[in-house]
Amino acid sequence: MVDGSSKPNVLICGGVNTYSRALAAFLVPLEGEPLVSHLRIVDKYSVVPATTYLGAEFPKVLAKPEVDYKQANLTVLSIVQSIFDPPEGQGPYDYVFDLTGEVRYDRTEMIQINTTCNVARMLGQEAAKRKVKAYVRITLPFYETTSKGTHDEKDDPKPDGTIGIWWHETLRILSAIENLNLVILRVGFVYGPYVEFGDTTSAITVGSVYGYLKKPMKSVWSPGKNPTNTLHVDDLAGAAWTLAQWIGPLGRKEADSLAGESIIFHNEKSKVSQVEGMPPHDQKLVAPLFNLVDDSNSTLLSVGQTVTSFFGTTFDFFNLGERTMYKFMDDAVEDINEHHVGGWTQMIQSSNPPIPNTPLSAYMDKYALEKHIVAFSNTKIKEVTGYKLKQPQFNHDGIKEIVDKWKEEGSWPIL
Ligand SMILES: *[C@@H]1O[C@H](CO)[C@@H](O)[C@H](O)[C@H]1NC(C)=O
Ligand SMILES: *[C@@H]1O[C@H](CO)[C@@H](O)[C@H](O)[C@H]1NC(C)=O
């Protein structure tokens, strides 16, 4: 391969159900030169036959000669260690992208500890032992910031619920691993082609139903500045790559001095003795941390308006009386879903050509319906690494690209 020896070997762990597929397609594009010499992706899913949604593009990426997929249980230490052994003829892994972690909001604390904290800890420890040049941890917006002002990396947002507490704890655990060339990328609400996970995708699907029904889509939350900052998945991939290249030549110490932030304790002190590798509450931990959101300053209202106007309807809010009725979230979840789940089914059944199955659902779970306030500043990553957003705005073009690709692969109704 031309210049093969000068390109890094890369390991992506986890995230096939979220953003790893887009990252893999960025590193080894279907058209054009790969950025890597060799890429291994490891996750618990089988890809042949697929045990999770893969999208039309990912199987083609997997078929590239540079790419190797391993189905593996990363909760097992010996397996974690073995995935770092490259295939014969390849040098050791230079960069690791850690997209592991349980993303379902309703999992128990025990599951979060076992599959979010422990998996990342074992990966981080092995990566440190192997002297990996860059370990990029992707962390999702399981936080609540305040509505006002900007929120740079000095800000200390509150982890949101059980999932937030343990995803945040994972950052502390990784930060504490000696000689780990860790850099953390904390993203907003990610959307993009073949991304079926997340609130923004949910908003797009549900918005289409209200467009189809020719009714306004209504929010249970009062109008107000509820930031829900967005990010295109191509920028998640691009920035993760930029950060690996940034820390690679620097190393952790230098990276900490240039971009280190305190990773503050947000847990119960009593957990420290119960969770392996959890640093004491008063241990001062520092790691290079970068927020990444697009330039849209997206809010509940702006996302709602962009999505509904794309589908030819409007975004509205329930009035006070209606909101009072939905004081009890569990009732609200069923009531609200009744309005649009049937509509989506109708759309799927009316599609020509028919849609035998789709990963998309108009069902909004409790998490999707809860109020989330996530506002991050993206200034630091731009200033420190020179990263330029590829998709700075959440707009109709972005939604069209997503819907067109779903139509093409037969996941979205053609009416
Ligand atoms: C992964 O390994 C753990 C620990 O041995 C086990 O409890 C779990 O069931 C395994 N998961 C799968 C999907 O095999
Ligand atoms: C988590 O791991 C512990 C220790 O290996 C095990 O005893 C427990 O059954 C696991 N729990 C879950 C929910 O996976």
TrEMBL record:
InterPro entries: Lipid_A_modif_metabolic_enz, NAD(P)-bd_dom_sf. Transmembrane segments: none annotated. This is NAD-dependent epimerase/dehydratase domain-containing protein. It comes from Lentinula aciculospora.
